[in-house]
Fold these 2 entries.
Entry 1:
Amino acid sequence: MTERTFSIIKPDATRRNLTGKINAVIEDAGLRIVAQRRVKLTTDQAKTFYAVHAERPFYGELVEQMTAEPVVVQVLEGENAVARYREVMGATNPEQAAEGTIRKQFALSIGENSVHGSDSLENAKIEIEQFFTEDQIVG
Ligand code: IDP
């Protein structure tokens, strides 16, 4: 089934000029980048986006990291795009990420792990709507 998922190239990666290399991994995996924009998240945007983690000890650090430098927000489209992108990203902790995954190749740590990808189709829809209108997504 063709799906859309939401992706963020995080500040640790944009800071190191890795946007192009990460996009190459995404495209080589058969996912199409059907919307993309560079943006500096506000503290409110980052807090809302990660609200599900509000009680976790790393929440403050996560919000700080996500707002430190620009990010690239994207919509990816393809067969089973949600699960496929999670596979391409690799495990949250780069030490546990499989060879060839984005996080294995580029992540610095469990916090600064280079990319975000939606964890369900339902959340993908909610996250996409936080950053893109339908007319900005060109499949
Ligand atoms: P995911 O990004 O692989 O879906 P989640 O568990 O949803 O992982 O966590 C969201 C983000 O919070 C992670 O990508 C990472 O940046 C950060 N994070 C998760 N666990 C830790 C931790 O133990 N220490 C610091 N940051 C963490």
Note: The beta strands are 2-9, 32-39, 71-79, 115-117.
Entry 2:
Amino acid sequence: MKNIRNFCIIAHIDHGKSTLADRLLDVTNTISDREKQAQVLDDMDLERERGITIKSHAIQMDYMRDKEKYTLNLIDTPGHVDFSYEVSRSIAACEGALLIVDATQGIQAQTISNLYLAIENDLEIIPILNKIDLPNANPEDVKDQIVDLLGCDESEILAASGKTGEGVPEILEAIVERVPAPEGDPDAPLQALIFDSEYNSFRGIITYIRILNGEISKGDLVKFVNTEKEYQADEIGVLRLSQEPRKVLKTGDVGYIISGIKTSTEVKVGDTITHKANPCDSAIEGFEEVKPMVFAGVYPIDSEDYEDLRAAMEKLKLNDASLTFEPESSLALGFGFRCGFLGLLHMEIVQERLDREFDMNVITTVPNVSYIAHTKKGDEFEMHNPSDMPDPNALDFIEEPFIRAQIISKSEFVGPLMTLCMSKRGIMTNQQYLTSDRVELTYEMPLGEIVFDFYDKLKSISKGYASFDYFQIGFRPAKLVKLDILLNGEGVDALSTLIHFDNAQAFGRRMCEKLKELIPRQQFDIAIQGAIGAKIISRETVKAVRKDVTAKCYGGDITRKRKLLEKQKKGKKRMKQVGNVEVPQKAFLAVLKLD
Ligand code: GDP
Ligand code: MG
């Protein structure tokens, strides 16, 4: 136990976490040349392309020092705010963290939010200035920022380059020197923390664990404390580049357990594993049921694909426990599913996986957050869909989820950023200069306002320089109304949104204008209206036109004529029939693109 070091790497996105992790594996000869890939830890295509580690993994390295062998377990953490609960559990499995800061970028929002999690868990922080090979690196300034942030001594900061490998041996030294060995009682009843799990189509669920107390042997009967389910530990082992089976895992170890579990929903990150016969007294603190916070309808473009879509969703769910879905139907879009996501990135990932792994073309409706409706009768329920909105006469009030947002930016952009946050109903709670030209702004704002276009706007206002991270701070009452869109008098349920009363008028007007641009002229006038209840608040008209695609063929060439008609028919496939109006797919996302 005294020669084990469990650590993670925390960093803002693109500051070099994956690159440095690969270097550590390199220097410790954990990967043979044959096994080398561009980025070993990111093994999903999608991850590699986005440069984000979506799912956390762990890997064990051997390190020799003064003729003594050390076992280093690197636990990888997902970098995005949507997965912050998973980050917190990975951090809870460690004693130390490498805090990486890009020497050209300085401290960013995610650096701070991840650091807070690490400090909460009492981790030893090793600050590392990365990318010092770059000519525009600014080591002195960034060092000052780190000293301010951590209250550490400048001499504690290591300088490195994941690219050239400079400073990497010193990092390994520091891990052994500074990160404490695991504590825990080897003779106590088993207490193991689940910090991640992964679906494997041959082996079922692989559960990643950190043993806090006691030990586990192959074949043991174990209990998952929070889910109260019992299993046999069919296989246990450690995580090298692949799983290496072992007979026993001891206090302080990081490893995996395979126990015949078939779906991800049975294994909950943060749960405690103990022995059935000799259980530990209590579960490990910090367990939470992750709840999706963003909801959207997902519909097949071709309604015949509904069953295929269901099969695809079920497969995705096998390895993504945080995805939820239930059937719903829309007058406009037919049969589909109401899906729950952790956040917007998670939603995008699911959409992309449906497309890539299952070849499913889907329409995703406007996302909304989870609201709580209180009725006059005193009932209370969650709303995941604008159509859940109770009758205004029965409704007492609605609560919406709030977040605390941290924004770090060059000071020259502060004015426009404040205007943006205000337009999103944000309330500033703190403003702090990190250096003379970098500011940290703290806002409280409704999650629902972030869901639309906040992030894109933040980036464009700040020319890409501002960074942003958030965490949830509970529900607050809000004056929300349901805005409906009518096409020729008929409500299009998939275009309804819940919106703050003060913004409804302007929003309805912009929606109608945008739809007017997107809905092609047809053989009759189309009235586009925005309505709150029975009250029409905006209106536009798409004028009729008769478009005859074969007109310019002068009757002559019949094959050409047929081709054109077929082409037109294909074009129509990407349209949805709403009453007598054909609505293009992109119109359903119009609301996301309002300027
Ligand atoms: P992550 O998002 O924190 O995992 O960051 P990555 O490891 O994917 O690195 C982001 C980008 O920075 C990639 O293009 C890397 O090649 C590059 N990069 C990472 N470390 C260094 C470094 O030390 N020096 C230089 N010049 N580039 C680096
Ligand atoms: Mg990465």
Note: Residues 174 and 195 are 24 Å apart (CA to CA).
